[in-house]
Amino acid sequence: MEKSGRSIRTRGIFSLTKLVDYQREGDLAIVTIDNPPVNATSTAVRTGLLHAIRSAEADQCNKGLIRCAGRTFVAGGDVSEFGKPPQEPHLPDICIALQHSPTIWVAVLFGTVLGGGFELAMACDYRIADKGARFGLPEVNLGLVPGAGGTQFLPRLVGVELAADLASSGRLIAAQSLFEAGGLDRVIDGDVDAQARIFLEGVNSKSIPVSQRSVASFEDGFFDAKREAIKKSAKGAAAPNLNLDAVEWATKLSFDEGQPRERALHLKLRYSDQSIALRHVFFSERAAAHPTAITGTSSSPLDTIAVVGGGLMGAGIASACLNAGFKVRLIERDIGAADAGRARVETILQGALKRGKINATVFDKQRAALMVGDDYAASYEADVAIEAVFEDLAVKQSVFRSLAQHMRNDAIIATNTSYLDPREIADSIANPDRVVGLHFFSPAHIMKLLEIVRLPQTSKAVLATSFELAKRLRKTSVLSGICDGFIGNRMLAAYRRQADYMLADGALPKEIDGAMRAFGMPMGPYELQDLTGLQIAWANRKRQAATRDPKERYVAIADQLCELERLGQRTGKGWYRYEDGNRSPVPDETVQVLINAYSAEHGITRRTFEDTEIQSRLIAVLANEGARIVEEGIAERDLDVDVVKIHGYGFPRWRGGPMHHAEALGVKKVRDQMRLVREQSPGSWALAERYQVPQKVR
User: Fold this and answer.
1) 662 shares a domain with 633
2) What's the gap between Cα 77 and its chain centre?
3) Residue 677: in which H helix or E strand, if any?
4) Residue 105 phi/psi, 5° resolution?
5) What is the CATH number of the domain that holds 432?
6) Block mean pLDDT (10 aa), the chain, length 698
7) Domain limits for position 35
8) Residues tagged active-site
C-alpha cells in the first residue's frame, strides 16, 4: 500500500507531517523539506527526514534526492531549540542514516547551504549545486561548534586549511570555489533539480562516505599559527579557536571518534555565557527590525532616492542606495559641488569593483542610475529624500523647505542629523507626518546600523517604509525616539563623560583604551575620538553648554586639545600623536602634561585605576543610560539598545550588548558600580529606576 502527497511511509506506518514530503518514482526516492523561511532542521524536520530515509529503504529505492522547497536549501538548525534539551532524532542520527543507507543519496543544493544543511549535504553520497549557492558553517557566530560532524566532514572533503578557515570565521564560500576545492560533484547553471536527476542516471554505486576519507596533508605549524592569528582578531570570543580545535581533531582521530567529541562540545557550548549572548543578539536583530510601532502597517513602493549633500556621508548614503538597486538623485548647492559628489560616489563604486564586490556590468548599471545636479526639481520623482548636509540647523531647515517645495506631497523627507532635533529641522514643513530621521553611521556604505527616528507626527506608514528601505539597504535598523544624540550617541556621550572623569582623576588615555580593548571593544574611547575627529563632539558640547546642568561635573581637557588644534588623526595629533602614513596611536607626553595640569588646577589628587575598575564603571554607565533611554520611551526595549551599541559602536557581540551584559552581571553589581560613579562625580548622574536602591517597606 502506498500513499502520496504529504505523508511519510515508514515500514507500513504513515507519519503525517507538513514539513517533509516523501514520494517514490519507480526506484527513485524524492525527499522534499518544506519548512519556510529557511528550511531549518527543527525536531519535526529531523523526524520527517529519518522516516523518509527509512521509507526509501523499505521501498527498495536504489537512488534518492534530498531537496528543499522555497528559496534555499537548509540554512541551518532551528536556533530557538538551542536553549532547550535536544530532542531525538538528532541531526547526527540523520547523517549516519544517510551514510549507511543502501540508497544512493544526492543533495540538491541552492540558496544558502549553512550549518546543519551543509552537514546534511556532506553526509550524502553526492552534491549537486546551483552556481549561485553559497556554503558555510556559521555556528561560530552563535558561540558554537557544528553539532553533526561539520568540523570532521569538511577537512576530509576540502582539506584542513579551507575547513579551518570556514569553521573558525563563519564566512561563506561560493559554489564554484567549493567545487574547485573538491566539496561538490557538479555546479549547475540552470535547473538544478532536473540536472540532479540526469546526474543520478549516470551513477550506479554509492560513493566512499566523506567520513571514511583521509585528511590531506597540511603544513607543519599550521594550527599554531592559525591559533595565534585568531586570538588577535577574535577579541575575546572563544568559539573561533574552539572550532579550530575541532578541525584539528579530524587530523588525529577517526570520524567515529571525532564526531561524538564535536557533538559533546556543541551541546556544552549551548549553555555557555557567550553562546547565550550571541543568540540574544541573533534574535534581537530580527526583533529590532519589526518594532511594535509598525505592526500591521504596510510600506509604500520605493524606486528612487534623492540625497542632498555629496560629502563623505552623502556619498556613502548614495552608494548604499545604488548598491541596493535604487535610482539616486544627488543634489548639491552648485554644479562644482555636485561634480565632486559624483566623484566621491564613483570612487566608492570603483573600490567595490576592484575588490570583486560587484562586476563591471553592475558597476555600469549603478553609474547609470546616478544623476547629480544643483536643482531641487530632481527630487520630484523621488519616493524618499535624505538630507545629509553638515550639522547646522539653519542649513538643514533650508534644505527641507526646498525639498518640500519640489517633492510630491506623499514623498518621505528624512534628515540624517546626528544630534539636532528633527522637529526643529522640519518645523515649517507641510504634511509633517511624512518626516522621519534616518541616522546613518559613517561610512554609510559600510556601517550596518540605521537609527530610524520617529517624530511625534511621523505616520506609521512612513515608519514602515523607512524600515523597508533599511531592509533593502541591508542595514540593521532600530527605532528611536527623540533625545539629544538619539540612542547611540546619547550613550556614547555618557561613556565618554565617565572616561573623562577617570582621566581627570588619575587614568591616562592609553590605560582607559587598553582596558576597553581588553574587554573586547575594537578600540578605546580616546582612540575612537582620534579616528572620528574631536571637532564634532566639541561642536556638540558647545551647543549643549547653555542648557547643561550646572551641578554636572564638566571636564574640559578635550576642549583644550581642540583649542590646540589637536583634532585627531587627520591633523596628526589628538589624544595621541601619529607618524606620517601610520595610524597607530603613539602616547604623547604633551597630552599627559596637559592632563596632569588640569588635575592640579582643580585640586584633584590623581589615583590609579585598575583595568577591571575602568571596565566596570564604563559598562555600568552604559547600562544605566540605556535603561533610562528605555524608561523614557526613546527605545522600545533593552534589545534595541543592545543592537545599536553592537552595530554602531563596536560593543563586543559575544557579550550580547550592554543591556544583556548588565543583566548577566546582575542588578546589584551594576547598582554598586553606579554608586561609586556617583560618589566620584556628585550631581552628575541620574539613576535609572532599575538601579536605584529599593526603599525599605515600613
Assistant:
1) yes
2) 19
3) helix 667-680
4) -105, 135
5) 3.40.50.720
6) 35 54 96 96 96 96 97 95 92 97 98 98 98 98 97 98 98 98 97 96 94 94 96 94 98 97 97 97 97 96 97 97 98 97 97 95 97 97 96 95 95 96 92 96 96 97 98 98 96 97 98 97 96 90 91 96 96 95 93 97 97 98 98 98 97 98 97 97 97 70
7) 7-204+215-269
8) 119, 139
